[in-house]
Design brief:
The complex is a heterodimer of chains A (about 260) and B (about 260). By secondary structure, chain A is mostly helical. Chain A is built from eleven helices and no strands. The longest helix of chain A has about 35 residues. Chain A is flat. Classes of the chains: A mainly alpha (about 260), B alpha/beta (about 260). Bound molecules: adenosine-5'-diphosphate and magnesium ion. The site of magnesium ion has 5 residues of chain B, from helix 1.
Chain lengths: ~260, ~260
């Protein structure tokens, strides 16, 4: 067998086999015990279908959560890229703001939740603000760095051919910074998902985070676990979508790096 | 020629860089004129300020003092009539755009319509012999082919002045000979004015109608020499001419003198 084929078979085998083994281990460990906190996989699976795959929970809890997550990270990405390119392209603005931005990024976003609740109340805008307040930083700081590190030869080329304004933004600045921007977006997505859950654990009455907390307080442990499983599935799906988009956006980057590695 | 107003006029140009270790005087004082349609080679040792001179000429760098005039107007920003081919050609192509799109982008910036743009891009890319690579990305091409793309982009832009900074320093000998002939052909076909910078003495004599020799930093002009070789040049026969040997020996000696700091006219 060719080594490349063997390698990809092995990786598919690991991707499928390891989770199966883990679930088997989980089943074995929980079989016959009456431990309240660690239900069997079967119970969690039942809870999963009866709790989350019903129309009512979908529309009341899951979809609004995912909607807020989507709006929150899109806001973060847009704000981060627009502000980041502006700051990155303006040296004096950059040296003025950068220490302060690093400071804000260093604050754990959860610490801001009470503050944001005070200012915005407890509705959707508060939840969005919590998501954005934490997930905007990696996009912003990476964009600034990506724009700052643009190749001066390419900058001179664009200047001498008088490529300016929207055209330069679309065909020069954004693509030049895009490897850094995408690295920022990857972080933004995982932080955004965490903050989506957390924002729903404070003074909320709906959402995935709220439901998980609610089940825990009701001692509906299998249901609680099934919510955590759902979060895992959402996380994997988001990562897969990101991967697809990244491959498309950065195909030139991966291609050129492959060539230069020889 | 001498009684017509020059296309490009450089007067007492001086450039001093401010660096962390103190001021670096790259260009002492340079004065010369270039008339429309000339092909001028600028030759000088590495580090003598050739790139600095070109950046000042093309409005990318402000001179410390002195002036550059193009068609009588002072150059303070990159002028519309000028195209630059950079020394680091690989880094001057947009890696996220195909060959065709790299050539097309400056035309788009000029507001040229799609149909006309496509035609101009095709013509220029064919002209440099890359018709088959139109939809490839620059990083899929060899160094010599990348340099051709940079030249095609400059040609499609239809500049009055084409400025090239050591464009062939990093390509192999055969490719280099082909590209030299390409530059001569472009110059003859388009009637464009060419300023060609090189550190290679043979190349400057083979290509130029005129050679400007530069001294070491702080740079001045050592000599301004007319090259009286026939207009039709050929890699083998032209380089074999006794006059070619005389001229390159002369340029070589002048550069050696310049290195020793003797300013002989
Ligand atoms: N941005 C800069 N800051 C300080 N010194 C520079 C800078 N660019 C070039 N120099 C110096 O100016 C001199 C001329 O450089 P350059 O114009 O690149 O020469 P060449 O193109 O002839 O090799 C060199 O001594 C170089 O170190
Ligand atoms: Mg140089």
């Amino acid at each position: 067998m060719m080594p490349a084929v063997r390698r990809s078979l092995v990786s598919v085998g690991l991707a499928v086999g390891v989770p199966i083994l883990l679930v088997l281990a989980w089943a074995l460990a929980t079989q016959g015990t009456q431990n309240l906190y660690f239900p069997t996989p079967g119970k969690v699976f039942d809870a999963f279908t009866s709790t989350w795959l019903t129309g009512a929970t979908m529309t009341k809890h899951v979809l609004p959560s995912l909607g807020r997550f989507a709006i929150g990270v899109v806001l973060s990405i847009v704000i981060g890229i627009v502000a980041g390119t502006a700051i990155g392209a303006t040296p004096w603005l950059r040296s003025l703001l950068e220490p302060m931005l690093e400071f804000f990024r260093a604050i754990p976003p959860v610490a801001l939740v009470p503050v944001i609740m005070l200012i915005l109340g407890i509705d959707d805008s508060m939840k969005l603000a919590v998501i954005v307040s934490g997930s905007v930083w990696p996009v912003l700081l990476n964009t600034i760095e990506g724009v700052r590190a643009m190749d001066p030869v390419l900058t001179d080329t664009s200047r001498s051919y008088r490529i300016r304004g929207a055209l330069a933004y679309r065909y020069f600045v954004l693509p030049a910074a895009s490897p850094q921007i995408m690295a920022g977006v990857r972080l933004c997505l995982s932080i955004g998902l965490i903050l989506m859950v957390i924002s729903e654990m404070f003074a909320a009455s709906s959402g995935l985070g709220y439901q998980i907390l609610f089940f825990q307080r009701q001692y509906m442990i299998a249901e609680m676990w099934s919510g955590i499983v759902l979060l895992g599935i959402v996380g994997v799906a988001v990562a897969a979508i990101f991967q697809l988009v990244e491959r498309r956006v950065l195909h030139w980057y991966h291609g050129s790096r492959e060539v230069s590695r020889g | 020629m001498a009684d017509k107003a020059p296309l490009l006029s450089v007067k007492e140009l001086k450039k001093t860089y401010a660096s962390a270790t103190g001021p670096v005087e790259a260009i002492g004082s340079i004065t010369f004129d270039v008339h429309a349609g000339e092909l001028v080679c600028i030759v000088g040792p590495s580090g003598c300020g050739k790139t600095t001179l070109l950046k000042c000429l093309s409005g990318l760098l402000a001179p410390t003092s002195g002036s550059v005039r193009l068609d009588g107007a002072e150059v303070t920003a990159p002028p519309k009539k000028m195209a630059v081919v950079f020394q680091e050609y690989g880094r001057s192509l947009y890696p996220w755009l195909t060959v065709a799109d790299n050539v097309a982008l400056p035309l788009r910036a000029q507001g040229i319509g799609k149909a006309e743009r496509t035609a101009a891009v095709e013509r220029a890319v064919e002209e440099v012999g890359l018709g088959h690579a139109m939809h490839k990305y620059p990083w899929q091409l060899s160094g010599g082919m990348q340099q051709r793309v940079a030249i095609a982009r400059a040609v499609a832009y239809q500049p009055e002045v084409l400025v090239m900074d050591e464009p062939f320093a990093a390509v192999d000998a055969q490719t280099r000979a082909d590209l030299e002939d390409l530059v001569r052909r472009v110059w003859q076909d388009l009637g464009v004015t060419v300023l060609f910078v090189t550190h290679d003495i043979d190349e400057s004599v083979y290509l130029g109608e005129r050679v400007l020799m530069l001294t070491n930093s702080p740079t001045t002009i050592q000599e301004d020499l007319a090259i009286d070789l026939p207009a039709e040049r050929d890699q083998l026969s032209t380089r074999a001419l006794p006059r070619f040997t005389e001229l390159r020996t002369h340029v070589y000696e002048q550069i050696q003198r310049a290195k020793r700091g003797e300013l002989v006219r």
